[in-house]
Amino acid sequence: MKRVTGIGGIFFKAKDAPALRSWYQRHLGIDVQSWGGTAFTWDEANGKPGAGSTIWSIAPHDGGQFAQSVAPFMINYRIDDLHALVGALKAEGCKVLDRIDDNEFGKFAWVLDPEDNKVELWQPADGH
């Protein structure tokens, strides 16, 4: 079974999320959207849009998105078969959170690494 196939997103906390988003937009030219981040689309070698994107997002420091982790970041890893990987991780004794989300973007699950960093696993929906 193939496990991680790429990085789907990078999420981090900020003490002043709006100010930090503004800084990245102004100084690094990141097109920060109203939801707090952006989607970097992938391009093929010929410069044409590819099939995928990587999300970049800044969350409020006191938000619940990182719950059960004290780390100020979370990485989202793209995978091919969420249910198979979750089953394998549980069998291997990993701390898999007891929740799977399924929405228009795909399927999501979470596992805590040995240092209790929350790791997001994402099986993209078709077209993502």
From TrEMBL:
Domain of life per record: Bacteria
Pfam families, alphabetized: Glyoxalase_6 (PF18029)
Family annotation (SUPFAM superfamilies): Glyoxalase/Bleomycin resistance protein/Dihydroxybiphenyl dioxygenase
InterPro entries reported in the protein's UniProt record: Anthracycline_SecMetBiosynth (IPR052164), Glyas_Bleomycin-R_OHBP_Dase (IPR029068), Glyoxalase_6 (IPR041581), VOC_core (IPR037523)
Coiled-coil annotated residue ranges, if any: none
Domain spans labelled VOC: 6-124
Protein name: VOC family protein
Species annotation: Massilia forsythiae
